[in-house]
Amino acid sequence: MDSGPGAGAPSRNDKGCPTPLSATLKTLIRSAWDDGAPLLLATSGPRGPAVAPKGSMIADDDARLAWWERSKKGVLENLSHDARVRITDADVMVRRV
Length: 97
Prior knowledge:
97 residues; 24% helix; three-stranded antiparallel sheet; Pnp Oxidase, Chain A; alpha+beta
């Protein structure tokens, strides 16, 4: 987990309020961790998008995600400009069925 710019910043809805993480989303994040399937975190910033695997992602509370940052700071740089993120799974075994 990182303490750099944007780390631990809650996501915000269009009114600037933190968007709570649903119980379903928190369960999916936990399941990815338990199954060893990394999540992909996508961000956007002035130098373009950054997509990075986050095998260590957890739902820290109802409004914050936490992870061990190892993506050469591209994600953190983008989060300092725009705190919105997109999360998807990278479970290739599910996709093969």
